[in-house]
Specification:
By secondary structure, the chain is α+β, with helices and mostly antiparallel strands. The chain folds into four domains: 110 residues, Arc Repressor Mutant, subunit A (Orthogonal Bundle); 126 residues, Rossmann fold (3-Layer(aba) Sandwich), CATH 3.40.50; 119 residues, Serine Threonine Protein Phosphatase 5, Tetratricopeptide repeat (Alpha Horseshoe), CATH 1.25.40; 110 residues, Tetratricopeptide repeat domain (Serine Threonine Protein Phosphatase 5, Tetratricopeptide repeat). 54% of the residues lie in helices and 13% in strands. Strands 8, 9, 10, 11, 12 and 13 form a six-stranded mixed beta sheet that branches. A five-stranded antiparallel beta sheet has the order 4-3-2-1-7, with helices on one face. α14 packs antiparallel against α15 and α17 packs antiparallel against α18. The chain is globular, with a radius of gyration of 26 Å. The N and C termini lie far apart (71 Å).
Length: 524
């Protein structure tokens, strides 16, 4: 009996220079891991595991598509995709042989190897449990043929941008072309492709103006998770297309994260993997209370145990220590800060190509280790890897505040907010912008942004500290003092002497911040 990916099959299957690992859901060419669409991976596993016989199309439908009806063209396209990934092209059929009217058989010489039991104890996430998405060809409703190139180019750009988010599995554009012009239901297409989410859209045109409607669909429920209408003038060419791509991707990724967190929080998995643990931890973290931060850290530590090579687990664990510092709940600051920095460097080492892991590592190294230079180097790498990652611009904004460069900080923070205007973390961007305005002497702007942040999160200490300082600096002691009273109630140990432990600021900025809070009643 064959074992589908993510099952208990302990075997490694080796052919030519390839290694197929069903348990880890990996196909490697030498030491390099190859990226392939989930359904294609499942099909390859089935063919290899059933290599002793010819498998019929009915066999494939039962094993890969769970018995759902699929067309011959769909099966052919998946077989072609498998052949392409393992370089079985042309007429030689040296790895997968076709038997007309009968089926297929994997004919390459395969060597098997049982993995060590210790190695099996720390499995990475099965690929079909990860967040996966397809960007379907958008429909041109303008009846103008020249708009086909624009809309196809936009879909290409969105697909490419989404692939830069390492937590996402994105169906390659080449596999989606066959769906152009089809009227099939979106949920049917996602079942065929074995993906969780689909992005679809339409284009209309009126003179020089175009209107694009886009929606995100969850294949599990058929629910529309997000929809937006975008309008603009095409006269700016690529500039307009780039802005549109950034807007779509920023909002979609934010919505996907929320959907994944909600799903894994409710899911009843017998043995949650590292990815699921991270999602559960992030669900707790986003409650932003001391108890929820501790609960999140526990989940991230379990994720590290489940997969010692999963960079996001280390990155988010480090970020928990950043939040513990912000809340003033580091019991042994030097020890816990050092632990957070160690986790951050491990995340950076494991996640060299993961912009999110690098970003969270940069934050931990800077805020906990007060190593702004190293943090800046890491976040610059993150932005180069994924320029549409809003949190990377947010963290670089903070680092520029630490450096005293408030103008550049505001530029970065504003860009982060534009990339993801409906992100659940916008309140943090507002608070960071408040600090930049405060140090630049624009106290009214700082106060307004800080109040926006604490209106959403009343106990957000980072926001409270800049709100009180801004009101005090503007001469509004009557509003600043109650804010200080609230802060002390939340953190009785807070005082002027503890401020240097909270943010690694320049001496002049630290002094300005401390003087304002002292005048509002914060004790030494």
């Amino acid at each position: 009996m064959h074992s589908l990916p993510g099952s208990d099959d302990p075997m490694l299957y080796k052919f030519d220079l390839y290694t197929l690992d069903p348990h880890r859901c990996e196909l490697r060419l030498g030491a390099d891991r190859l990226e392939l669409e989930p359904q294609v991976f499942t099909l390859l596993c089935y063919l290899v595991q059933e290599r002793a016989r010819i498998v019929t199309r009915d066999d494939l439908i039962a094993a890969v598509w769970n018995g759902r009806f699929v067309s011959d063209s769909t099966i052919n396209s998946r077989i072609s995709a498998v052949r392409k990934i393992i370089d079985d092209r042309g007429t030689s059929e040296s790895k997968i042989r076709s038997f007309p009217r009968r089926g297929y058989r994997f004919v390459a010489r395969v060597e098997t190897e049982v993995q060590a039991s210790d190695d099996l104890g720390s499995m990475v996430t099965p690929i079909n449990l990860r967040s996966s998405i397809v960007v379907l060809p958008f429909t041109n409703l303008s009846r103008e043929a020249d708009q086909d190139d624009f809309i196809d180019g936009l879909v290409d750009d969105i697909t490419t941008a989404l692939t830069q988010f390492r937590q996402l599995i994105v169906v390659p554009r080449s596999l989606c072309v066959s769906y152009k012009g089809r009227t099939a239901d979106v949920t049917q297409i996602t079942r065929e492709l074995n993906v969780r989410y689909a992005l679809e859209g339409t284009l209309r045109k009126d003179g020089k103006r175009i209107r694009i409607n886009i929606q995100l669909v969850d294949s599990r429920t058929g629910a529309n998770l997000w929809a937006r209408r975008f309008e603009g003038d095409q006269k700016n060419g690529f500039e307009f297309q780039d802005r549109l791509t950034a807007s779509v991707v920023g909002e979609v990724v934010s919505k996907l994260e929320q959907a994944e967190i909600d799903f894994h929080r409710r899911a009843s998995l017998a043995t949650p993997d590292a990815y699921s643990r991270v999602m559960r931890g992030t669900s707790s973290l986003y409650e932003w209370t001391p108890a929820s931060i501790d609960a999140a850290l526990e989940q991230y530590q379990l994720a590290m145990n489940a997969d010692p090579g999963f960079a996001p687990a280390y990155a988010m664990a480090s970020y928990c220590y950043v939040q513990r510092q912000s809340f003033g709940i580091l019991l042994d600051r030097s020890k816990e800060a050092a632990e957070g920095v160690s986790l951050a460097w491990r995340a950076a080492e494991l996640g060299k190509n993961d912009a999110y892991a690098l970003t969270r590592a940069a934050h931990g190294i800077s805020a906990l280790g007060q190593d702004i230079s190293s943090g800046m180097s890491l976040v610059e790498q993150a932005i180069a890897l994924n320029p549409n990652l809003a949190v990377a611009w947010y963290v670089r904004g903070w680092l520029r505040i630490f450096q005293g460069n408030t103008a550049s900080a505001l530029s970065d923070l504003d860009h982060a907010r534009r990339l993801s205007p409906y992100d659940r973390l916008v309140f943090k961007i507002n608070a960071a912008m408040a600090y930049a305005h405060f140090f630049a002497g624009r106290y009214d702007d700082a106060s307004q942004l800080a109040l926006n942040a604490i209106r959403e999160r009343p106990n957000y200490m980072t926001g409270l500290r800049v709100a009180a300082a801004s009101d005090a600096a503007a001469g509004r002691k009557s509003t600043a003092k109650p804010l200080v009273v609230r802060m002390i109630g939340l953190d009785p140990q807070l005082g002027i002497s503890t401020l240097p432990l909270l943010l690694p600021l320049r001496p002049t900025d630290l002094s300005k911040w401390a003087d304002s809070l002292r005048s509002a009643g914060l004790p030494d």
